[in-house]
Amino acid sequence: MQILHIPCLEDNYAYMIIDEATKEAAVVDPVEPHSILRVAQENGVDLKLVLTTHHHWDHAGGNEKLRQMVPDIKVYGGSIDNVQGCTNKVENGDKISLGAEINILCLHTPCHTKGHISYYLTGKEGEDPAVFTGDTMFIAGCGKFFEGTAEQMYHSLCVTLGSLPKPTRVFCGHEYTVKNLLFSSIVEPDNVRISQKLSWAQQKRAKGLPTIPSTIEEELETNPFMRVDLPEVQEKVGCKSPVEAIREIRKRKDEWRG
């Protein structure tokens, strides 16, 4: 399983997932169809699927154009998310396959949008899995609660995504890592892993390189929204439950002008 980053717009990422045995490919959130086709041609792949995480234009806005350019392509999206250009609606637990070796599990991760889907991929034996989290989980952050509640974001992040195998690689929808880690270091000023990752991320961005992927293990160490089960994190933000803490950290992040 080969995964390519395709920078789009100002700070979005689309991703191309290639099954190396068959050269069949899927693309996540292809907002710039011309860029997607160029990468497909450069890599000699046959585009089969679009995996749309949610309905916002900067993720789903290229679907219809891509369908015109690749008429046989299937476009997957959450069944209650009203994704433009969607041909195949999916729900939590639905499975899709790509090529000979890639299996895709759809995970309903609502809050940012009510029908947001994250896609969990496994490849051949010995390969670390990958999860495409759209705008539910960012590196050291999470999406704004546009269409849901703190309870939903807690469940999406800490239960659904947090229970994936720790080596799972995390590919999110935007390059927000440096800002997220700056905020995280205010929430947890004594967390050495956060300061180490911040300095690493700043070096990456200075060279124009992506900070993605992370892993579930790294997020459990450095993402305050995924650490709200810890009493010391709850205490830092004056809360007594994980849901209360995730609500308070999101409120502080929304008001932060860092």
Q: How would you summarize what this structure contains?
A:
The chain has about 260 residues and is of the alpha/beta class.
Task: Explain what you see.
There is one protein chain. This protein has helices at 33-42, 57-60, 63-69, 150-161, 177-187, 192-206, 216-222, 231-236, 242-255, and strands spanning 2-8, 12-19, 24-28, 46-51, 74-78, 88-90, 95-98, 102-108, 117-122, 130-134, 137-138, 141-142, 169-172, 214-215. It is of the alpha/beta class and 258 residues long. The mean pLDDT is 97. The strands form three sheets. It has a six-stranded mixed beta sheet with strand order 1-2-3-4-5-6, covered by helices on one side.
Compile the SSE list and pairings.
Blueprint: E1 2-8, E2 12-19, E3 24-28, H1 33-42, E4 46-51, H2 57-60, H3 63-69, E5 74-78, E6 88-90, E7 95-98, E8 102-108, E9 117-122, E10 130-134, E11 137-138, E12 141-142, H4 150-161, E13 169-172, H5 177-187, H6 192-206, E14 214-215, H7 216-222, H8 231-236, H9 242-255
Parallel strand pairs: 3-4, 4-5, 5-6, 10-13
Antiparallel strand pairs: 1-2, 2-3, 7-8, 8-9, 9-10, 11-12, 13-14
